[in-house]
Amino acid sequence: MAAKVNRAPGGSANSGSANSGAWKRFKSQFTLQVFAWMGVAFLIIFCFIPMFGIIIAFKDYKLTQGILGFFTSDWVGLKWFSEFYHDLVFWPTIRNTISMSLLKLVFTFPVPIIFALAVNEVRISPIKRTVQTISYLPHFISWVVVSGMLFSFLNEQNGLLNQALLGMGVIDKPISFLSGPQYFLPIVVISDIWKEMGWWAIIFLAAITSVDLSMYEAAKVDGAGRLKQIWHITLPSIKGTIVIVLIMSIGNLFGGGISGSNFDQAYMLGNVANNSVSEILQTYTLKMGLSQGRFSYATAISLMQSIISLILVSTSNWISNKLTGTGLF
Amino acid sequence: MSAKNPNKIRRTREDWAVDTVVYIIMAVVFLACLYPFYYSLVISFNEGIDASRGGIFFWPRKFTLENYQAVFKDQNLLKAYGVTIARTLIGTVSSVLFTALFSYALAHKNLMGRRFYSMLLIISMYFGGGLIPYFILIKKIQLMNTFWVYIIPSLLSAFNAIIMMNFFRELPAELEESAKIDGANDVMIFFRIIFPISKPVLATIALFNGVGHWNAWFDSAYYVTDKSLKTVAFRLMELVNQANLTSVSGADAMSQRAGTMAAQTFTAETIRMATMIVVVVPIILVYPFLQKYFVKGIMIGSVKG
Helices (DSSP H) in chain B: which residue ranges? Predict the structure, then answer.
């Protein structure tokens, strides 16, 4: 191709006018430009067109209007937002979204750090490696499978947990974990910890292994025990990593934190009986949009979620920059 | 690790306490992560009616292959398995290739418009249209109800593109320059030189991609209505949803189903478990390969993402 002409590809071939230089450069990288444009075309179609589609939240859009209908359909202002706000499900859905997200943030986030610290204290290499390897296996299994396991573990007829509790005499009749609303959030939080703990511990462990070992030696000379070493050396050293992962979690708070599991969990584990706590903005968007065909209304609900979470990320990032000097942007 | 500690004088009481707690944590994590898989395996090899009585923990009480026979006799499920294998293979190869070509182009510092292209990529990582506009798009560009709805929308992954770009950028520029002097064009350079030396990175991304394709059920549930195009992850999702319904209604659908035919002993639960095992086994098989590389992958991602 043009490579033979221009031996130093894109080099400072400033001969002639700037225009012909740019053209030459473009010609010499024509193939690469094609590669880039294929990707750009993909991004425009699958990312930017849907992004423009968000305006149907303020319009009266019908599916028959096609993609151009994003722009040509009639404006209705904040009609859908107001309708959702006045709907009886508004506050419960917002409350469920927030409580599910916050509970997962508070309980799921610290566990990988604690686990990573514990793994780091293991002195027997094979045990360390085996446990770590096993611990991130659940990350690769889908929530569908995890839910399938949960149904076998927790069901009323022959679930393991009920059998165990009955056997130990803790309860005298089986508990309906799967349909009791009060059990939904604990199940969601614990299963999220189970699935993602090992995976996110990898990041923290990598940060721990890059801590300067001489610091520990110095601490030992000063008489610091292992707990003191963890508290005064390891934790401060991985503070930056912790903050970044925390901001990432807050950034995707409504999606379900770092693992982004809110939708899958609410969809798979939610049912008629626990609907009062398991209906979140995402599942409600799905119901209104794809099941009932109210596209504009559903888009408004989903936009509302995005706006709230954008505010949350910006705020947490700002606070983090103020307090620790680290932030995502 | 630090076994060769020169000032290892004596173990203090604190050492004992820390070790005890740490090893208890290790044991609990080990069991908690493995046992659910093992339990599913045990139930999948047990007779269904017998299993519904409970009391099985470590070993099948009435061993049978019937559950698996039923699973493999189900034409719908076999078909779905085929669709899943096809989408995983085609989807992974095409996505890795497409993303790699894009990243390779953007890894060139002198590429005209590079900043603009990267900007689009970064924006796409943080913002999107959400479910509904995306659904409308899929419908309007006629991807609905085709096999390609599994492949085309996941051709480019911004996250993977950034990992690949970082990798390509580290490669020595001389490799490419000397090939150009020898008269190779960009396509040849990519496939003959860049591709082979990037194998570790591409393999890692391919494995992750493959697992994602294998587990994906949402597109099959909402973008495809044709029964013969459903994936196995979707079929399993249906079975799990049935279990969810059963748990609410309290109706003992497990034994009902078994009662329909006297010769059958399997139940909804044992069939579900056997299907689960069939879905999970391929992931467990690639797991050793996955974990060989991914620590690096997740680290790059965490720094950039």
Answer: 13-44, 48-51, 66-73, 75-106, 114-126, 131-140, 158-170, 173-181, 186-188, 195-197, 199-215, 218-222, 232-249, 253-259, 268-304
